[in-house]
Amino acid sequence: MRASKPREAGAVPTSGWMGEMSRTVFGQCQRLVVKVGSSSLTRSEGGLDEEKVVSVAESIAAATKSGRQVVLVSSGAIAGALAKLDLKARPRDLATQQAAASVGQGALMRLYSEVFESHGLVAGQVLLTAEDVVRRSHYRNAQRTLYRLMELGVVPVVNENDTVATDEIRFGDNDRLAALVAHVVHAEALILLSDVAGLYDGNPRGSDAALIADVYGTDEVSDLSLSGRGPMGSGGIKTKVTAAQIAAGAGIPVLLADTASATEALAGTEIGTMFHPTGKRVPTRLLWLAHAADPVGSLYLDAGAVDAIVSRKKSLLPAGISRVSGEFNRGDPVDLLQQNGDVVARGLVNFDSGELPDLLGRSTEELARELGSAYRREIVHRDDLVVLKPKQ
Ligand code: GLU
Q1: Which of 30, 220, 255, 355 could bond to 351 as cystine, CB 3.0-4.6 Å?
Q2: 241: alpha, beta or left, given left = phi > 0 and alpha = psi -120 to 50?
Q3: What is the pTM of this model?
Q4: Tens-place pLDDT, residues 292-329
């Protein structure tokens, strides 16, 4: 047993720290998201490990039966299909991953449904792509479905829609997906379960690494070297920490814990690593935009436009753009850069890249006069924009 790292006196309130909260929040909150990783649900040689799936589902069923609303984000579709498809390792190419997910997702849901039904509960499958949550109309749709399922007493079982997600539109890891789902459903807490007991200050398989019990700010983990992915899932500790930071940054406390301790985690026991909230809730769409969307182009802004966006909460107009790079369509996410190339914001652009060069540097009045009133619109509307670089 390794000792957990004691909190250093005076080290608690780092910048952005929002106030002391204890693990009881995970035991007492009404609505929460629990994410389980592939390696916690599969055998090392591939294929679903029924015992493990049943054990996690039992813990979730017990929490649901006690009146709590739990959304389960479960990986394991791809890894779960390996044995059935005679694959030795997680496939690397997209087409085989999609095919494997198609086989494994059904098997995974069958198991979950069986366990939940044995407790008088019903499971509902929700498969999401990044696209479903970046676009306003889509995320409202996903939100409505998840709410309705919970109102009906159903346990939503969420996964990425791997069979149709292409490289461009996929999350690729369920850790970030879980953080964003937690935000969409206004969850009070997020529990990330995996085959490690939490975040360590060194290699968790090594003997001298200590568990970090509490994380109060981003700077605290910036020095740790968080190495890669696990053999079965696509995550690894790095994506868990990123996901924890996304959720904590939006006001949701996060617990990283061992899947074998799911029941304890759901009871608020002092285990794992807790990421304390560092920020407040922001509109969901902007959280997606900041953390989930992959920008497909760049707009270079002059100093006046940077100031308007970063300090004065304005929309981006054609007059403030000096250069465009990349090919994109109306509605795509793009980065907004200042002249030295630093990204200051990200937004959903209102024009195709082909249309923009003729508009740059010109006033919307002039454009509307010359080209019609449709050209009066902003290049990126304030509501579709998130500032990534805080005011200096
Ligand atoms: N969605 C993938 C699956 O179910 C897993 C992604 C991940 O490992 O985070 O197989």
Answers
A1: 355
A2: alpha
A3: 0.78
A4: 678 899 999 999 999 999 999 899 999 999 999 999 99
